[in-house]
Amino acid sequence: MVAKASIKVDTTTCQGAQNHIMSILSTLVYHSQAAEPFSEVELLYLLAAARARNRAEGLTGLLVYDEGHFFQWIEGPPLSLQRVWHAIQKDSRHQNIRVITDSEIPIRLFSQWHMQFAHRGGAAALHIDGLVEASPDVLEALRQNPNRAPEILAEFSSLGAGPFARSLELR
Ligand SMILES: Cc1cc2nc3c(=O)[nH]c(=O)nc-3n(C[C@H](O)[C@H](O)[C@H](O)COP(=O)(O)O)c2cc1C
């Protein structure tokens, strides 16, 4: 006689665990330097491609560019983030990439944008959807203290974007 083992699966717990895994959000903040200074048109191309892929991957965030420096906050499901992060690291348009923070987060800060963009402004920049104009003080603070990028970038999330966006001032 063959003994039958009966395994009772607690579906409530499995479902709960699965929902938890699906809802985990990661964020990554890094600083990098452009290999060559970006023109506004090049920034537009980068942003359009990044947004299209981020939309497909369910990623949101903020990209700051100023005088050859990039700061980026990316957030979303860990596997999607890993895939895109892999591509970003291999991108020869920037170098000296340094991760400042890489952690789990409870909620998205930039849920409205597949990549919001903060910039000093300029003619072409005025036409960029999702633009926040950044004040020179804030950009200077970022460059002087890259380690403060997570807290400074997080503040941008409260500003909105587009023609009615307020600009971020240092407090
Ligand atoms: C500063 C910087 C930020 C970028 N941010 C993103 C991004 O948020 N999402 C994205 O998909 N690609 C981003 N890219 C572009 C990627 O590096 C890459 O070109 C793109 O994902 C296509 O990758 P693939 O050719 O491997 O498909 C960024 C590139 C740079 C230089």
Summed up, the helix count is 5
Order of helices and strands: HEHEEHEEEHH
Number of domains: 1
User: Main beta sheet, described?
Assistant: 6 strands, mixed
Report the CATH architecture: 2-Layer Sandwich
Strand order of the largest sheet: 4-1-3-2-5-6
Helical content band: 25-40%
Portion in beta strands: 25-35%
List the ions, cofactors and other small molecules found in this model.
Answer: flavin mononucleotide
Stretches with pLDDT under 50, minimum 5 residues = 1-14
- Name the CATH class: Alpha Beta
For the CA atoms, what is the radius of gyration?
20 Å
Number of strands: 6
CATH topology: Alpha-Beta Plaits
Describe what is shown at a glance:
36% of the residues lie in helices and 26% in strands.
Describe the structure.
The protein has 171 residues and is α/β, with parallel strands linked by helices. It has one domain: 2-Layer Sandwich (Alpha-Beta Plaits). The chain contains five helices and six strands; from the N terminus they run αβαββαβββαα. It has a six-stranded mixed sheet with strand order 4-1-3-2-5-6, sandwiched between helices. A hairpin with a 2-residue loop joins strand 2 and strand 3. It starts with 10 loop residues before the first helix and ends in a 15-residue tail after the last helix. The N terminus is likely disordered. Flavin mononucleotide binds next to helix 2, strand 3 and helix 3.
